[in-house]
Amino acid sequence: MGTGPELEVEVRRIQPYQARKSYVCPGCNQDIGIGIGHVVVVPLTAPDLRRHWHRPCWAHRDRRRPGRNS
Ligand SMILES: [Zn+2]
How many structural domains are present in the chain? Predict the structure, then answer.
């Protein structure tokens, strides 16, 4: 997966009917509401650190991440 130093992760799709809680998306710091389909990103080596993301935020995460202007 890519050439960066990114952790290996498993991405699981959450369907709208599975979204029974709201979460804060780390990509945009907005809520992911109940009933919104999204993704869960689970680091393979640290499953406790799973995060819930909006699908488009996850897809475009590289653009949103600051500090990559080398
Ligand atoms: Zn988001």
Answer: 1
Q: What is the mean pLDDT of the chain?
A: 88
pTM summary value: 0.78
Does residue 50 sit within a domain? yes
Tell me what percent of the residues of the chain surpass a pLDDT of 90: 76
* Ligand 1 ion: residues within 5 Å (CB): 25, 27-28, 54, 57
Report the separation in Å between the CA atom of 10 and the middle of ligand 1, taken as the mean of its atom positions.
18
What distance in angstroms lies between residue 13's CA and the mean position of ligand 1's atoms?
A: 14
Provide the β-strand partners of residue 23. 32
